[in-house]
Amino acid sequence: MKLIPVSTENRSAYLNLLLLADESEEIINEYIHEGEMFAIEYENKIVGVALFTFPIELVVELKNIAIDPNYRGKGIGKLILSDACTIYQNRGYSKMIVGTANSSIENIAFYQKAGFRMSEIKKDFFKKYPKPIYENGIQALDMIMFEKKFR
């Protein structure tokens, strides 16, 4: 498994992968050119993407992580988070944050298993999306924020 940096001008080529984690192309276009993006290579094939932004000093935000459904459940996501935390900790960042919808039951469990703790709820965050999002029979309304401190 390897993280391959993606230049700003080539990021649109990964839109289909980004859409696996964020259903709104309009919203993705608001952040696609921010921060650092990495293609995720596994067994010599691009199987996912991760995009990190830097909202405030010493804080890195995992803005989007998506793994091709055929490669989920193999521990790739957990490895990516571990590698990314190491990279950004070594660069002097103090923590990583990530948000997911109240309806994303699998993601909520995933981030906690990866060592993240709930830190905040952004009420009505998903009301700004062009179309309502439903997962697990639940409407996505609120963003649950998680954080993992490096020190």
UniProtKB/TrEMBL annotation:
Sequence ranges assigned to domain N-acetyltransferase in this UniProt record: 1-148
Name the UniProt record assigns to this protein: Ribosomal protein S18 acetylase RimI-like enzyme
Coiled coil (UniProt feature): none
The organism of origin for this protein: Pseudogracilibacillus auburnensis
Pfam families xref list: Acetyltransf_1
Taxonomic lineage from the root: Bacteria, Bacillati, Bacillota, Bacilli, Bacillales
GO cellular component: a single term: ribosome
Keyword Methyltransferase: no
Superkingdom to which the source organism belongs: Bacteria
CDD domains named among the record's database cross-references: NAT_SF
InterPro entries the UniProt entry points to: Acyl_CoA_acyltransferase, GNAT_dom, NAT_camello-type
GO MF term set: N-acetyltransferase activity
Keyword field: Ribonucleoprotein, Ribosomal protein, Transferase
